[in-house]
Design brief:
It is built from 3 helices and 2 strands. The protein has a two-stranded antiparallel ribbon with strand order 1-2.
C-alpha cells in the first residue's frame, strides 16, 4: 500500500484527539501479515507503544505465537 500517505491518516493516530490508536480488524489476515506491519513500523522508526491497563510493555513479536497470543 505504497500510495497511502501519512498526512491522510495521521489524525486517526493522534493521542490528543483519540487517546490511542484505533482498534483495527482486517478480515482474512494472518499473524504473518500483522508481523509485517510491526516490522514496517520498526523499520521506519515510527513510535509504537503497547499498553495493557496502566502498564507499558515492549511491543511483542508475533512470530511463534498462537492465535490467542499466549505463545506456541
Amino acid at each position: 500500500m505504497s500510495d497511502l500517505l501519512w498526512d491522510d491518516v495521521k489524525q486517526w493516530f493522534d493521542p490528543v484527539e483519540n487517546g490511542s490508536a484505533p482498534d483495527v480488524i482486517v478480515a482474512d489476515t494472518t499473524l504473518a501479515h500483522w508481523q509485517f506491519v510491526l516490522d514496517l513500523i520498526r523499520s521506519r522508526g515510527w513510535l509504537c507503544r503497547y499498553e495493557r491497563g496502566d502498564r507499558e510493555f515492549a511491543v511483542p513479536e508475533i512470530r511463534g505465537r498462537s492465535v490467542s497470543g499466549r505463545g506456541p
